[in-house]
Amino acid sequence: MTPLLWTLIAIQIVMGVFDTFYHHEFTERLAWRPSQRFELKLHGIRNMLYALLFLLLGWLQVYGLLALLIVAVLVAEIVITLMDFVEEDLSRKLPPSERINHTLLAINYGAILVLLLPVLIAWAMQPFGVSVVHHGLLSIAATACAVGAALCGVRDFAAMRRLGRMRSVPADGLVEKLSGRKTVLITGATGFIGSQLAASLSGAGHHVIALIRNPAKAEMLPPPVTLITSLDQLAADTPIDAIVNLAGEPIGNGLWTEAKRAKILESRIDMTGEIVKLIARLARKPEVLVSGSAIGWYGLWADQVLTESAKSHACFSHELCAAWEQAARPAEKLGVRVVYLRIGLVLGTEGGFITRMLTPFEFGLGGPLGTGRQWMSWIERDDLIRLIAYVIATPDLTGPVNATAPIPVTNAKFTEELGRRLHRPAVFRIPGGLLRRIGGGFADELLLGGQRVLPNKALSRGFVFRHETLRSAFEAIL
Fold it and tell me: In the chain, what are the domains?
């Protein structure tokens, strides 16, 4: 085996490690997505084949039929990779970086085969036999790679079995409070919350009109759904019973630079303004506009209990939410009931803030942020969908409504409960000073600050949460 061949193998290993940890573990989080169970099975089989190949090529030269068996393993790897490509396209949308990495892996693997197959054919032409070889550091490196590939394979199979045990509530059963057949317009319909809301409504027989900015994401929404890319596509005589406005630039996927803050604000204000213009030109006004907001409206209050009647403290989160709610207020003058849904931290394994915590916690690297005394007001995603349906169906429910579970917890309690559920320690505390130096206002408001919010309006109107405690929520989603 030539130095060029070993170099190409090393490059393949580096790209494979990047793909596994950056894409599969940290960005796509395949180990927590039930839809990717078969993909994980393919990954597990392929990793075990890689482990076998690394050991064989690192320490042995095999002749005759044994060399042909190595060729068979290489062919099997190609077949599994092609199946993996098909499965990925059917079950999820790959980010550009993963597609590029896969292309480079395929090209490099082709070059490896061009150099390796003649060697294997030459070995196959010789009498049956096995000889032990030692390539120095290369043999040691091959052993380390074999161990790593095998561990990744075990991880994939374990995750696959776990996903098989995870059960979700049928989506159509989340909106039972909505009687008749409603037509609901949803903005932000391909997001973590919007996609589940759209699936729930359409599954229950309601007509969903989904505003999507990126047509490539249309496949995320199960039919039947009417897709539009602009509100201008809706005629004035379009019958709409309710509008749920969830669209907006994500706030937790990057530091709050001036440009990022402006984009966060503009995306929400502009979209809400467009909705008000749509309502103004509709011949029949919708019954209700459920306009997204967040508990950040209250600002940072330490331990004080906050209900819908509480005042606010000035900070960027309050500025954002106040502007968002203000943009929806003109709809009231058009005769539409407006509800400002002040949403807390939404729990689910398919999106939201908790998905960034699962991998480090699963590997035993989780722990509190700063002192851990800051409050986390949370809500399980299906409960949020049920609450949105309840708000639409309750005519006397107006103004701000806190969308949080009745029992908020501190960050220390949250991390302890997550560690308990994953059977892992949660002792790696991240210093608050470090987070502030890295994240600035983002860290102060989203990570180290918090609100102790109670859903008084929802409870007083008779809404019943399925998951009042964090333990109940984790047991449902994990």
Answer: 3-165 (no CATH), 171-477 (3.40.50.720)
